[in-house]
Amino acid sequence: MHQICPFCKKLVSEEHTKCLYCGNLLTFEVKKKRLTKKEVIFYVIGFLLLFITIFYNRDLTNFSEIREGLIILVLITGFAVFFGRIRNMRDRDSWWW
After folding, report:
1. What are the Cα distances from residue 12, in Å, to 2, 17, 28, 35, 84?
2. 0.85 cut: is pTM over it?
3. What one-character-per-residue DSSP string does the chain give?
């Protein structure tokens, strides 16, 4: 029997654990890590502190200042999520794709 490599899409024998063409692992277990209650509380408090820091001393009746604060909040949150995912994917052999 053969299986298709999910990375390079070539046929590889089912008995191989590594692709002969691209070298990526064909069988790997991804353990989903559930957040503990402490971690959830930590993230919520951190997000609230970030929110308060960004919107502190802003004129909340002015839409452009609200929009500017939201853009900053989304960018910081996006970077945190992106770098957190890269950190979690570093454990695999082929973590970039």
Report:
1. 6, 9, 16, 36, 32
2. no
3. -EEE-TTT--EEETT-SB-TTT--BS----PPPPPPHHHHHHHHHHHHHHHHHHHTT--TT-HHHHHHHHHHHHHHHHHHHHHHHHHHHTTSSS---
Same domain, 26 and 38: no
- Find the mean pLDDT for residues 26-55: 79
How many structural domains are present in the chain? Answer: 2
Give Cα 7 distance to the centre of its chain: 19
Residues 50 and 68 in one domain: yes
Q: 39 with 3, same domain?
A: no
- 47 and 84 share one domain: yes
Over residues 15-33, mean pLDDT: 74
Are 65 and 77 within one domain? Answer: yes
Domain range for 75 is 34-97
In this predicted structure, the answer to whether residue 97 has a pLDDT above a threshold of 50 is no
Single-letter amino acid code for the residue at 69: G
